[in-house]
Amino acid sequence: MRTAALSGVDVRLILPLHGDSKIVEWASQSYLSEVVKAGVKVYLYKAGFLHSKMLVSDDVVCTCGSSNVDFRSFENNFECNLFLYGEEMAKQMKNVFMSDQKDAMIITLSNLRRYKQPFMDRFMQSLSRLLSPLL
Whole-angstrom Cα distance, residue 11 to residue 4? Predict the structure, then answer.
């Protein structure tokens, strides 16, 4: 994501404001400043819990499914995604994403700098990030 954003690609990511696992939430929060600095537009979904895994690329290719696109998803949990090539389906999925984006707030560098997190939160984020390959 960072490489694509740094090369000028419009990369948008929607994360749930609050996850179903505090450890996963901490681990994902530990990456926020890095990806925002790279130019990824990160949104936090406020209208409930968002657990979709969806990607649309160039309004032609799209994927959705249960996979987190990591070894645990593929090797241990046998999760999979559906990949589609076609403008019509890609645009429909993009419309779903854009609709969800309306119920989300954007994270900016100034927002991240303004909100000074307590030491314990930063510690838990770092620890969760370190342990995330094992979880």
Answer: 7
